[in-house]
Amino acid sequence: MDPKETLAFVQGQAEIWQHMFGFVDSMALKCAVELRIADIIHSHGGPISLHQIASGIDSPSPDIPYLTRIMRSLVRKNIFTEHHPLESGGETIYGLNPASRWLLHDTELSLVPMVLMENHSWQLAPWHCLGQCVKEGGIAFKKAHGCEMWDFASKNPEFNNIFNDAMACTAKIVMGVVLAEYKDGFGSVGSLVDVGGGTGGMIGEIVKAHPRIKGINFDLPHVVATAPVREGVSHVGGDMFDAIPNADAVFMKWVLHDWSDEHCMKILKNCRKAIPEKSGKLIIVDIVLEKDGNDLFDETRMAFDLLMMAHTTGGKERTELEWQKLLVEAGFGRYKIIKIPTIPSIIEAYPE
């Protein structure tokens, strides 16, 4: 091989090694969350030494050499900072940065529940079934656990709590961005139904920001049965595959990506029936894939597509063309995609 071919060959090998051990980064991240390393540093108000971190870990005798190696990896991945101040006698101290602040447990915006959920052995097991799914079809989660994820959650309270905590933390993050970036979009809406709204947290935040809106939280009867009273919000139980309550606009956040095109078509047609012919609006908060996208979240969006394959029943992330096809067939002749600085985008769709 000539030098260029040799270099390309070696680079190819290096890339495979890197991807092969991609799980190492997520496991080190999970380790940091379980040990509460970010919280320990935060409680001191600034960078601290390895021994100070160790003294804050819930253990009578933490292994310092192991901790050293974990911190070395996390610093290299820019999760924590590393300093060598002269006044500390050359002892390395570790601090927080914008990434590690997302690993604090008791903050309003945190990704801790998502890190714990996605790296739990229950959620990792279906990933080992992707090859089997390609060969013979089927549902990866069911192959791994004998039932689909929603059934698994209903039978396993611990998993259900882990899952709900993860969904709640991402909802807070995404809704904060939606409310900041889309405030004009809610301005002309008199009534709004949140389809798949859980216990009403999202519609509650929307109504709080726009008190003139009459909010309707719509989910399965057993879900809304436990929903707390929220000012300006009424809770309605039902099945989105049967019918959706009437309103000026329908709101759905990260609902359609859980379902196949066939299931989505049923939901979207019911949305179409629920809103006024001329003034109605559908507001979808979901991922729009771009093949050659290069913004901060594009790699994560691609990962979410395989995540849907691993964990849901026919769910997937969609390109703009795939969204367009679904919307048009469901009776939404016009649509607009609004990019916002987070993982999903806002898709506004209007009846023909």
Average pLDDT across residues? 94
- Approximate shape: globular
Low-confidence stretches: none
Number of strands: 12
Query: Could you give the distance between the termini?
Result: 60 Å
What is the C-alpha radius of gyration, as a whole number of Å?
Answer: 23 Å
Task: Give a summary of the structure in a few sentences.
This protein has helices spanning 3-20, 22-35, 37-44, 50-56, 64-76, 112-118, 121-124, 130-136, 140-145, 149-155, 157-181, 201-209, 221-224, 261-274, 298-311, 320-329; strands spanning 48-49, 81-83, 93-95, 191-195, 214-219, 233-237, 249-253, 281-286, 288-289, 318-319, 334-338, 345-350. The protein is an alpha/beta fold and 352 residues long.
Walk me through what this model shows.
- The protein starts with a helix and ends with a strand.
- Helices cover 47% and strands 14% of the residues.
- It contains 16 helices and 12 strands.
- Strand 9, helix 15 and strand 10 (318-319) form a beta-alpha-beta unit.
- Helix 6 packs across helix 11 (157-181) and helix 10 crosses helix 11.
- With 352 residues, it is an alpha/beta fold.
- The mean pLDDT is 94.
- The strands form 3 sheets. A 7-stranded mixed β-sheet has the order 6-5-4-7-8-12-11, sandwiched between helices.
